[in-house]
Amino acid sequence: MTATCILEMDNIIKEFPGVKALSGVSFKVKKGEIHALVGENGAGKSTLMKVLSGVYPHGTYSGSIKVEGRVQSFQNTSDAEKAGISIIYQELSLASNLSIAENIFMGDEPTNHFLIDWDSMQYRANELLDRVGINIDSNVLVKHLGIGHQQMVEIAKALRTESKILVLDEPTSALSTSEVDVLMNLLVNLKEQGVTCIYISHKFDEIFRIADSVTILRDGQTIDTKSIDSLNETMLINLMVGRDLSQRYPKRQRSETKGEKVLELKNYSLFDYKESKERLHHINLSLHKGEILGIAGLMGAGRTELVSSLFGAYNGKSEGQIFIEGNEVKINSPKDAMKQGIGLITEDRKNLGIFPVLSIMENMVIANLDNIPGKVMVQESEENLLCDMFVDTLKIKIGSIEHKITSLSGGNQQKVIIGRWLMRKPKILILDEPTRGIDVGAKFEIYNIINRLVEHGVAVIVVSSELPEVMGICDRILVMRDGTITGEVMHEEATQEKIMSYAIGGSD
Ligand SMILES: Nc1ncnc2c1ncn2[C@@H]1O[C@H](COP(=O)(O)OP(=O)(O)OP(=O)(O)O)[C@@H](O)[C@H]1O
Ligand SMILES: [Mg+2]
User: Fold this and answer.
1) How confident is the model at residue 373 (pLDDT cuts 50, 70, 90)?
2) Which UniProt keywords apply (predicted)?
3) Per-residue pLDDT averaged across 373-389, rounded?
C-alpha cells in the first residue's frame, strides 16, 4: 500500500491566531492519479496544500509529510519545488507589469554568461504556452491578458519545473468552457506522463470527469477518501456538508405581474478605448422591481463589460440612454452608480473587490460609511453589530472581524464582499459570477439571500457562466453574444440547449 503512495501527509495540525485550520488531517495520494480534494469554504484545503508546498515552513505545523516514502521538512517553496511539488494558488499571483515569459521564469531566468538569455527564455516560454494550449506571444504583458489567460500562464509557470506532484487550487474558476476542456485534457495528458495531480475544485462535473479518487475535508478534518467510482454527486455533497442537501436552488414564489421598471437601457453602446473598438452594440434592456434577471453568454460575449460600464467602472465611452426609475441618468464613475442605488459584486475579487491590507470589518463597511446612522464619525459599535449580523447570516468562517481579510479562505472573502453590498441596501444589485469559488452549502445561502432581497423590492442582475445556476435562480434570462443581446428566455421555458443556441449563434 505504502509503496504506491507518492504522498503521505499524516496528522497535520495547523493553527492561526484564533483559528484551528487543520486539526489532524491525514491525506494519502497514489502515484500517477488525479486526486480531488473537496470541502466547504474554510474546510482547510488551501491551507493543507500550503503546508505541502512549503509556504508554511516545517515547524509552523505539526505532523509529517512523506514524498515517495521519504520524510520531508520543507523550509520554503523552493525546497518543495526541488522535491517535485508545484502548486498553482487559488488567487492569481502574476506580476501584471511583466511579460508572460518574465512571469514564467521569475527568479529562475535562463542565463548566458551571467546575463538573462532573453531568446532562450522566450523560446522556452512559447513552448510552455504551447503545451497549455494557448496561442499568445510570450512577450505580451500580463496586464493585457484576460483573467482566463492569466490562469493558463500560471499553469505554464508551474509546468516549468519538472513536477512530480502538481497541485491546482481551483484552477478553473475563471476559465471559459473551452479553456476548461483544454485544461482537463492537459491534466489527463500529464497523468499519462506519470505526473500526479491534486485537484481542488467546487465543481462536481470536473471532479467526476477527471478524478480517480476524492478526499473530503470538513472543518479541518479528513472525513474520508473514496474512489470516484464509489460515489455520485449527491453522496459527495452530503459528505462535504455533513447534512442532506437534496435541493440545489431554494424555491421562490414568482409573481405573475411585473414590478415597476427600475432600470432601462436604450440603445446602449460601449466603445473600448484600449482596444479602440465597440464592445457593446445597441443594447436594450429593462429590469423590474423584485426581479432576478440573468445574463448568460460565453466568455467574451460582453457580459462583464455591460455590468461594469453600468457601474461606471469601465474604461470606455458609452452611448445611448440609461433610465433609473424613469429618470435619465449619467453614470461615469462607481460613485455615480452608488448614488443611483446600484451595487456591483465583481467576478475579480483581487483587483476590484477586496482591500487586502484592511480588516474583515473594514472591508465590509467600506462602501457603506454613509449608510450608518451617525454619519461622518462612524459609530464603531454600530458597525460591529451589523458586521456580526452579516457574518452570521452568510455563515462566514472567521476568527474575528478585526483580522485581515486575507486571512480568510477564498470563498469566505467572497462572502464578505457580498455582505458589503447587502449592508448598503441597493436598489439594483448586480452580481457578476457571484458564486465562483463558493461551496454548495454557501451557494444555497447566497441564493436565499438574493431571494430575500428581491422580496424586499430590490432588483437583481446575475451574470453567471454556470447555466444551471442561471436557470435555477433567475426569472428571466438574457443571452449575449459578441456585444449584443441575442435572446430572452423566461424561467419556465429555460433549457441549456435553448440558452446555448443563442450564446453560440446556432440555427434556431
Ligand atoms: N493566513 C491565515 N491567517 C488566519 N487564518 C487563516 C489563514 N489562512 C487560512 N485561515 C483560516 O483557516 C481556515 C481554512 O482556510 P482555507 O483557506 O484552507 O480553506 P479552503 O478549504 O481552501 O476554503 P475555500 O474553498 O473557501 O478556498 C479558514 O477558517 C481560514 O479563515
Ligand atoms: Mg481555498
Assistant:
1) very low
2) ATP-binding, Cell membrane, Membrane, Nucleotide-binding, Repeat, Sugar transport, Translocase, Transport
3) 61
3-state helix, strand, coil in the chain (%, to 5): 35, 30, 35
Mention every residue, 6+ apart, whose C-beta is less than 8 A from residue 454.
Answer: 290, 291, 292, 460
Q: Ligand 1 test: best mutation among 25, 167, 407, 409, most atoms within 8 Å of CB?
A: 409
Ligand 1 mutation target, pool 19, 50, 396, 413, most atoms within 8 A of CB? 19
User: Which domains are seen in the chain, by residue range?
Assistant: 2-241 (3.40.50.300), 259-341+429-508 (3.40.50.300)
Contacts of 428 (CB under 8 A, 6+ apart): 262, 263, 287, 324, 340, 341, 342, 343, 458, 459, 460, 461
Question: How are strands ordered across the β-sheet holding 5-16?
Answer: 19-30, 5-16, 62-67, 70-72
Average the pLDDT over 83-105 and give the result: 87
Coil, strand, or helix at residue 426?
Answer: coil
Q: Is 122 in the pocket of ligand 1 (CB under 6 A)?
A: no
Determine whether the shortest distance from the Cβ of 360 to ligand 1 is under 6 A.
no
Residue 153, classed as helix, strand or coil, is helix
Reading the block at residue 124, the C-alpha cell is 522556452
Contact status, residue 210 vs residue 184, Cβ threshold 8 Å: yes
For the chain, give the percent of residues with pLDDT over 70.
93
pLDDT tens column, 5-58: 999 999 999 999 878 899 999 999 999 999 999 998 889 999 999 999 999 999
Tell me whether strands 221-227 and 213-218 are parallel, antiparallel or unpaired. Answer: antiparallel
**Residue type, position 92, single letter:** L
Q: Is the pLDDT of residue 185 over 50?
A: yes
Whether 249 lines ligand 1, by a CB cut-off of 6 Å, is no
| Rounded CA separation 311/324 (Å) | 13
Check pocket membership of 150 for ligand 1, CB cut-off 6 A: no
pLDDT 10s digits, 234-262: 889 888 887 666 677 888 878 777 889 99
Minimum mean pLDDT among 106-110, 136-140, 162-166, 367-371: which range? 367-371
User: How confident is the model over 156-169, as a mean pLDDT?
Assistant: 86
The side-by-side arrangement of strands in the sheet containing 476-481 is: 342-345, 428-432, 459-463, 292-297, 476-481, 484-490
Residue whose C-alpha cell reads 486526486 in the numeric block: 35
